[in-house]
Amino acid sequence: MEIAVIGGGGHSKVVQDIVHADGIHAVKAVLDDKYTDMRMDNGIYTGPISEARRLLTMLPSIKFVAAIGHNETRKSVVAKLGLPDEHYAALVHPTAVISPSAMIGPGTVVMPNAVINADARIGSHAIINTGAVIEHDNRIGDYAHACPRAVLTGTVIVEEGALIGAGAAVVPGTCIGQWAVIGAGASVIGDIPEYCTAVGTPARVIHRSEGGMPIRGVL
Asked: Could you tell me which residue ranges the PglD N-terminal domain spans (predicted)?
């Protein structure tokens, strides 16, 4: 299957490596606004993101992946493109362990050595990063990101756009609200409200956004 990778930054490099490794897909295009026009080099199209629909007319079977690490930006780009779900591919690195009963939404990327266990449900355009563990019966929302080595134990709910920092651990039955941020290495033992940043062991809220999606990086 031919893949068009949207985004040309560091996260895109890792996504392209997954495409090369899985033996199923092939990178046919990289779209990023650092390019001013559409051109082909060594069999790969490059061009601005606005050329996605034109690319579809040229290659009707191509599938897209939004390879943008920043959750809000990824959502914004997908919304602007307005493409139906069937035009997006879910990518899974061959070293990842995925339960047969797990479900992964379109546009989601599962990185090397990640684990997704029984009856977990992963939404659309999410990122399950390197070595992250998504235990049984988790519900991970659209545009969420479980960073490297994050561990989400059983029956955890992660709502849309939330970010679980590298090495963080979340105890069973916990809910992380939409667009919340859990800092790297945090231990989450209770629910975290939407639009909040929580850090430490146990994790405590240190910031609340006053409406709208907060601007933030990966803690």
From this structure: 3-81
Helical segments of the chain, H only: 10-22, 52-58, 71-81
Q: Are 193 and 122 in contact (CB under 8 A)?
A: no
CB 179 within 8 A of CB 196: no
Question: What is the distance between the terminal CA atoms of the chain, rounded to a whole angstrom?
Answer: 35
Which of the residue ranges 65-74, 188-197, 200-209 would you say has the lowest mean pLDDT?
Answer: 200-209
Question: Domain 91-208 is in which class?
Answer: mainly beta
136 is catalytic: yes
Would you say the C-alpha torsion 87, 85, 46, 80 has a positive or negative sign?
Answer: positive
Residues of the chain with CATH 2.160.10.10: 91-208
Catalytic residue among 25, 125, 136, 207: 136
- The whole-number pLDDT of residue 216 equals 42
CATH architecture of 2-87: 3-Layer(aba) Sandwich (3.40)
**CB distance 165 to 159 below 8 Å:** no
- Give 147: exposed, middle or buried? Use CB within 10 Å, 0-12, 13-18, 19+: buried
pLDDT score of 218: 36
97-131: burial string, b at 16+ Cβ within 10 Å, e else = ebeeebebbbbbbbbbbbbbbebbbbbbbbbbbbb
